Amino acid sequence: MKDNKLEALLERLRGLEPCAVAFSGGQDSAFLLDIAREALGGGVTAFTVFAPYTLKRDIRRANDIIACLGVEHRSIDMPIGEEIRYNPRNRCYLCKDAMFELMGREAESRKIRHLLDGTQADDRKALRPGMSALKERGVLSPLREMGFTRGEITELLRERGRESWITPADSCLMTRLPHGFEVTLETLTRIEMAEEYLIEEGMEQVRVRSDGVMARIEVAPGQRRLFMSEERMGKVAKRLKQMGFRYVALDLEGYRSGSMD
Fold first, then answer.
1. Residue 217 belongs to what H/E stretch?
2. CA–CA separation, 62 vs 29, rounded Å?
3. What is the pLDDT of residues 85-107, one digit of tens each?
4. Residue 48 Cα to chain centre, angstroms
5. Nearest to 237, CA basis, from 202, 204, 208
6. 2-165: what fold?
7. 146-176 CB burial, b ≥16 within 10 A, e <16
8. What is the pTM of this model?
9. How far apart are CA 207 and CA 186, in angstroms?
10. What is the tens place of the pLDDT at every residue in 196-211?
């Protein structure tokens, strides 16, 4: 069954040359790019949009995967638009719309007929406001069309020797801020520095939610115990305060996707 789906995906992609893959560095778009390269060779290009709220670890991962695959890669910078500067509730739609407008222009300038993204079948089970923007912009989602789930993608990446591409689902830095909060480069940098530090401390899935004053740390439920020592709590609080946070707290419920919504 899985092999049949993969062959159907390859056949679908062969009919989309030339195409560009919206490549974030996440495992779903990495899998799509890998299969598209297998199907089309030089007939696929990777487009990556970098915004100030893009995670630096995603940028590093994207560059590493591109180096591994050897496909043509176009990086596109996108500033914080005025329409999302105060982190509105429809920020995902507005961001996706702006991103795919930029990628659409790039595709048109290169005479690339099809723009693809890595949305997969499980994404329709969750709230994905940005998906409306994809549909409006005519972006194709072959993984979703073929019914690939995240679990199947993970399994296939392992089979293809791509274990290092398997990562927890992530989101942009704006999801760490309250709606209506002004987004500044200083605030985004501080949050990312805190998360990078906590990852270095052994936290595998971490979010630092902030209102600009407090750092509210969310980690995977199984890792909350890592904070249960006076030494660790004091060390983390001291380091995050050095970064500019006034208060530092551990969220006792642990990591929850979209907890600021």
1. strand 214-219
2. 10
3. 999 999 999 999 999 999 999 99
4. 11
5. 208
6. Rossmann fold (3.40.50)
7. bebebebbbebbeeeebeebebeebebbbbb
8. 0.91
9. 17
10. 999 999 998 899 999 9
Residues 137, 132: Cα–Cα separation, whole Å: 9
Of 32, 51, 50, 49, give the one whose Cα is nearest residue 40.
32
β-bridge mates for residue 102, sequence order: none
Confidence check: pLDDT of 258 > 90: no
Q: What class does CATH assign to 173-250?
A: alpha beta
Domain locations along the chain:
2-165, 173-250
Q: Which two tokens stand for residue 128?
A: 């994905």
pLDDT digits (tens, 9 = 90+) for 23-47: 999 999 999 999 999 999 999 999 9
Burial of 82 (0-12, 13-18, 19+ CB in 10 A): exposed
CB 22 within 8 Å of CB 74: no
Alpha-carbon separation of residue 210 from 21, 228, 242 (angstroms): 33, 22, 15
What whole-number distance in Å separates Cα of residue 136 and Cα of residue 101? 10
